[in-house]
Design a protein that fits this description.
Blueprint (H helix, E strand, L loop, with lengths): L1 H32 L12 E5 L6 E5 L12 E2 L3 E3 L2 E8 L11 E9 L9 E12 L4 E6 L4 E4 L4 E9 H5 L11 E9 L5 E9 L5 E6 L10 E2 L3 E3 L2 E7 L11 E11 L8 E9 L8 E9 L6 E9 L13 E17 L6
Antiparallel strand pairs: 1-8, 2-11, 3-5, 4-5, 5-6, 6-10, 7-8, 7-9, 7-11, 12-21, 13-21, 14-16, 15-16, 16-17, 17-20, 18-19, 18-21
């Protein structure tokens, strides 16, 4: 019995030793195989397959087997894109100085910079491509970083564009009939020259409008409009139906504020309007009040207001005098938009 227990202990110890040694060997192999791996090389890199061809450059290499093991880079002819001149730089066995071991590396270099002004900079949204002939799609490689080209940094790309194990695998479809294709798409990011700035102005100039309506008792069942008045960037007007609207019809008097067109040279945008609407008491007591605040769309005619600022039966209590009523609109806040040219970097 003791001999059996001793044998079991020996077997367990041997199994533990072999397992630990195997695990250590596996870890060592992975570490050695990735000793040149650059963590930042693929940080944030995204890949996706797409059917559209690259818009800036495509390089197709036939008889690829002739150069598949070469370490020196292939430089394409110069091509123009977005107003500048460029070259593709291809390392088919990887750029070892950029963490490209066991990968294909691909870059775009800006050329002919001698003609650019001193201190030049070009910001680029860069995408690089490998054609998958089996799927008839382009493997697109990009990241979220803007590439800033300048005199010190004339070349940008990806040291780890695609693993060689994937690229050389005949089942993947990147090398078909001994032919490969690479591409680039270059979009220049130019600083905005005009900034739209929106301000909210409280109690703007000329912000109170008075509308006296005569011969009230003879008015028809339709909407009547005031003259237009300018506050901020827009013209406004009041409107009401003496017979009532909506829930207030026919027992209440409505009042609405309408946004109209824009003053000359104004920036035509959605406009904020906050208004106090009043039906004046013509014998000196307090007016009837309603308030509204809303975005008014660019298209004229949008309205905001109330369908019941006063009941018709209460008009005789000092609001209807000599067959006339008086509305007031006080624009307490409006938005004003301007386009600032050549804005500073601080928004």
């Amino acid at each position: 019995m003791e001999n059996g227990r001793w044998s079991l202990r020996v077997i367990c110890f041997a199994f533990f030793f072999i397992t630990s040694a195997s695990a250590e060997f596996l870890i060592q192999q992975v570490t050695e195989n990735n000793s040149s791996y650059n963590l930042n090389a693929n940080l944030g890199v995204r890949t996706v397959l797409r059917t559209e061809r690259p818009s800036s450059k495509i390089v197709t290499i036939g008889n690829f087997s002739v150069i598949r093991d070469r370490f020196e880079p292939y430089e394409s002819s110069v091509f123009e894109a977005s107003g500048y001149r460029w070259r593709l730089i291809l390392y088919v066995t990887g750029n070892k100085d950029d963490g490209g071991n066991n990968h294909v590396s691909l870059y775009v270099r800006i050329e002919d910079t001698e003609s650019l002004p001193t201190g030049w900079e070009v910001d680029v949204d860069l995408k690089l491509f490998v054609f998958n002939a089996r799927q008839r799609k382009y493997l697109t490689v990009t990241d979220d970083a803007v590439k800033r080209y300048n005199q010190e940094n004339r070349e940008w790309g990806f040291g780890q564009l695609i693993p060689l194990s994937t690229f050389h695998n005949p089942n993947q479809g990147f090398i078909v009939q001994n032919t490969v294709s690479f591409g680039a798409e270059i979009f220049i990011i130019r600083p905005v020259r005009v900034q739209e700035r929106v301000r909210f102005v409280s109690n703007p100039p000329d912000n109170v409008f008075t509308w006296r309506i005569l011969r009230f008792s003879s008015l028809e069942d339709k909407i009547y409009y005031s003259a237009e008045f300018l506050v901020g960037d827009r013209f406004w007007r009041l409107g009401f139906n003496p017979k009532g609207e909506g829930e207030g019809r026919p027992h209440a008097i409505p009042i609405f504020l309408y946004a109209q067109g824009f003053r000359p040279n104004a920036v035509e945008t959605t406009t904020w309007g906050a208004v106090n609407l009043r039906l004046r008491h013509q014998l000196g007591s307090s007016p009837k009040r309603a308030s509204s605040a809303a975005w008014y769309p660019i298209q004229p005619g949008h309205r905001e207001g109330v369908s019941n600022i006063i009941l018709r039966k209460d008009l005789q209590d000092g609001y209807l005098v000599n067959d006339s009523i008086v509305f007031e609109a006080e624009m307490v806040m409006v938005s004003v938009t301007i386009d600032e040219k050549h804005p500073t970097s601080e928004i």
